[in-house]
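TEACHING EXERCISE
Course module: macromolecular assemblies
Task: Read the component lines below, then compare them to the predicted structure of the full complex.
Student: A.B.
Group: 4
Components provided:
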Amino acid sequence: AAGVIQSPRHLIKEKRETATLKCYPIPRHDTVYWYQQGPGQDPQFLISFYEKMQSDKGSIPDRFSAQQFSDYHSELNMSSLELGDSALYFCASSLGGLAGAVEQYFGPGTRLTVT
Amino acid sequence: GEDVEQSLFLSVREGDSSVINCTYTDSSSTYLYWYKQEPGAGLQLLTYIFSNMDMKQDQRLTVLLNKKDKHLSLRIADTQTGDSAIYFCAELGGNQFYFGTGTSLTVIP
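Instructor-supplied answer key:
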């Protein structure tokens, strides 16, 4: 069965650069969630989208923005990167917004390293 | 906000049972989860339990939920070396997960 796809899998950037992470949900899933997992930390919720609208917001810095497109894929845009942004970024998808949030399927993650 | 806690480390011998514990604070959580994360890998859903259940069993995995004490546990029977990983409990609050700190399970051959 098709799973959540994230690209790139690994990304190395320098401080103050920008980065764009992409997430392709499971086919027919309409809800996307972004999580950030710092080294040795538990995943922290950043933001979610349902039917292309932001549905919930967590601890996402103002330097980050995200959107969901008409094909339901999502992009997380990160500007003015800081060393502390180095983390594993997970995307998850589900079907049906809040009602479907019970079953979120996680992607393999994008490992971002800021030097 | 939600606060989910776990012990950081657990070490067991191959073939023994492992019990990983978790405490959570949000009594309104409707679903509680266990995820497995191997080094450098993503989050693998192991199982989840609805809050009106006390127990759920799935092959080698048994989840126990004590809602009164807000305590969740995961028992892995006949633990194998392939079970070595970090295990996260999580509660669903609204439409986002709140993860615990993770328990690193080491299985000694």
